[in-house]
Amino acid sequence: MCRHLACLGPTVPLGEVLVAPEHSLYTQSWAPRHQRHGTVNADGFGVGWYAQDDPVPARYRRAGPVWADLGFADLARVVRTGALLAAVRDATLPGADGEAAAAPFAAGPWLFSHNGAVGEWPGSLAPLALTLPAQELLGLAAGSDSALVWALALHRLRAGDALGQALADTVRDVAGAAPSSRLNLLLTDGAAVAATAWGDTLWYLHEPGRRAVVASEPYDDDPRWREVPDHTLLVATRADVTLTPLKEPPA
What we know:
The chain has a single domain, classed as 4-Layer Sandwich (Glutamine Phosphoribosylpyrophosphate, subunit 1, domain 1). 22% of the residues lie in helices and 31% in strands. It has helices spanning 14-18, 25-28, 70-78, 126-129, 134-138, 145-158, 163-177; strands at 2-13, 45-49, 58-62, 80-89, 105-107, 110-117, 182-188, 193-197, 203-207, 211-215, 226-227, 232-236, 241-245. A 7-stranded antiparallel β-sheet has the order 3-2-4-1-10-9-11. The chain has a 6-stranded antiparallel β-sheet with strand order 5-6-7-8-12-13, with helices on one face. Helix 6 (145-158) packs across helix 7. The protein is globular, with a radius of gyration of 16 Å.
């Protein structure tokens, strides 16, 4: 399992969102409060962020634990943004992908993260993998379940699906192929955030017109945090948040 977070709001240093809060994503790498599977997220981390007037995000990812990376401390102190997605990773299975397996995954304007695990991986998703064009399958960022889930969602985005629709349909297909999967997905294009609650915790904090934060768990004790019901799609902008029940996969 993992912990992840996306934020849209005023331009602030990365560290104000990811490090400074009492129960920040940084702290969740070794002391999560709501994580249901696993206890330490030390198998990599990453952050992607958007600079003003540039639709393509920058990323910083590493294979080790965030607390051991002194470079991240400097980055978090000086880099400023109004939109970001970050994650700390607890690998589903051992692997040699290293940094390539750390979220956020990226393509064009999009950043993506998966908090969860695909059941009976990898055999369960072989039929879905074969629905991808060969060049997309060969271009997988890593050999992990999360990388393939991202490829499935990305295929829909490139076909013109909106953020929420791409995630909802991906969850339906993956859950249909591997019913025991946990599929908390997080996606942003810098202007909106889409997320799914499917098997683990998801929360949001919204200040209409100013800020929207979507996270695996609250990073502080602000009473305005709200938990998203399981099997729900969330789509958030700075202006509003909508929650929609996800369709169950065919029996």
